[in-house]
Amino acid sequence: MFGKLLTTFLIAMVPVIELRGAIPMATAEGVPLVPAIVTAVIGNLLPVPFIILFVRKVFAWMRGRNEKLNAFVTKIENRAMSKADSVQKYEFWGLALFVAIPLPGTGAWTGALIAALLDMQPLKAFLSVALGVIGAGFIVAFVSYGAAALIF
Hints:
Structural class: mainly alpha
Mean pLDDT: 91
Largest sheet: none
């Protein structure tokens, strides 16, 4: 069981996949509902404070290295900011809702990046992202475990 939980935890940390992939994987591996949600939420939240606190410094360093890295950073920033309208308008709740919606391009990594780029207060940003991740965890678990119950 430890190996399955560790896999769930690590998959939840991966950008793009996050807990949206970790919970269905845990379902397929037979991990019970509560440990799967808790493990995936913790794994998904682990990178968030680092993103909120350090991504701008990392981006500034990357921009100074060469033009290709500068272009890459610009592309990432533009993509994140293109999704920032609701976050700017509704701040805390907008960010939480953005992160909670389990669709491609949303999630903890993008939410934390948007919060950092909008200069949200770090604790407020983390709590908002955490609330969104918990919400996404329940939505994905409901779909995953509900579908599993129908199939098996």
